[in-house]
Write a structure and sequence with these properties.
Number of domains: 2
GO molecular function, one term: transferase activity
Keywords: Repeat, Transferase
CATH class of the largest domain: Mainly Beta
Shape: globular
Pfam families: Hexapep (PF00132), PglD_N (PF17836)
Protein name: Acetyltransferase
Bound molecules: acetyl coenzyme *A
Oligomer: single chain
Low-confidence stretches: none
Largest sheet: 8 strands, mixed
Radius of gyration: 17 Å
Strand order of the largest sheet: 6-9-12-15-18-21-23-24
Number of strands: 24
InterPro entries: AcTrfase_PglD-like, Hexapep, Hexapep_transf_CS, PglD_N, Trans_hexapeptide_repeat, Trimer_LpxA-like_sf
Helix content: 10-25%
CATH superfamily of the largest domain: Hexapeptide repeat proteins
CATH topology of the largest domain: UDP N-Acetylglucosamine Acyltransferase, domain 1
CATH architecture of the largest domain: 3 Solenoid
Distance between the termini: 49 Å
């Protein structure tokens, strides 16, 4: 198994750690979170602040990294702050997920149990495709987006960078959700949503 460093130790990290165990490809060598002030070792795993990531990589040059933080803004900020090459970030896919051979998935992205990613879907870097989400054919999902549990993105949907689609929302074909926008849980999106907006309801209305 290859070594991996997990950044973040909150709720989303617990699920990512389970995903790492079930994929049987990686072994966690370090968990980094700013609640730690200095590096300590417990049961063979290093715990330390996020700034120690370069020290950990210096000890084990083959190690991959995943930023296991649910907040899109924080995940993006850390990805930019650590200044580590894209190829060092692992793409983690749960064994129960069904991924089309023609789908393209970026580095640092995690795909949780029971997701489906269909033909020609293109998913960026540091994206969360959460439990049971369906990403249909020809979708584009930008970097740092979060597609929450049980979301359905139908065909030809575009989700721009950093957007968050709340749990169980549905987006109808051909719709675009703008960058860093938020779609409420359970919403049905039938019109494009501009950048930096919140939209809720069925069909969605924009919040101020
Ligand atoms: C494993 C995991 O946990 S993954 C995480 C998944 N997370 C989610 O799915 C959370 C998604 N977040 C939401 O749905 C939130 O309600 C948000 C972000 C859309 C809105 O949050 P806020 O900005 O705090 O809005 P607030 O609660 O003040 O509500 C504003 C208005 O929108 C309405 N509203 C809020 N959320 C929704 C919703 N999901 N559907 C319909 N209406 C909604 C409120 O009733 C209120 O309406 P009013 O002004 O007519 O009274």
């Amino acid at each position: 198994m290859d070594p991996i460093v997990v950044i973040g130790e909150g709720g989303h990290s617990k699920v990512v750690q389970d995903l790492i165990s079930s994929s049987e490809c990686y072994q966690i060598i370090a968990i980094l979170d700013d609640k730690y002030e200095e590096m300590v070792e417990k049961n063979g795993i290093l715990y330390g602040p996020i700034s120690s990531v370069h020290d950990v990589l210096a000890r084990d040059g083959c190690a991959k990294i995943v930023i296991a933080i649910g907040n899109n803004h924080v995940r993006a900020r850390i990805a930019q702050r650590v200044r580590i090459d894209d190829e060092k970030f692992a793409t983690l896919i749960h064994p129960s997920a069904v991924i089309s051979p023609s789908a393209c998935i970026g580095s640092g992205t995690v795909i949780m149990p029971n997701c489906v990613v269909n033909a020609a879907a293109k998913i960026g870097s540091h994206v969360i495709i959460n439990t049971g989400a369906i990403i249909e054919h020809d979708n584009y999902v930008g970097d740092y987006a979060h597609i929450s549990p049980n979301v359905t993105l139908t065909g030809n949907v575009t989700i721009e960078e950093g957007a968050h689609i709340g749990a169980s929302a549905t987006v109808i074909p051909g719709i675009k959700v703008g960058k860093w926008s938020i779609v409420g849980a359970g919403s049905v999106v039938i019109r494009d949503i501009p950048d930096f907006k919140k939209a809720v309801g069925c069909p969605t209305r924009l919040l101020d």
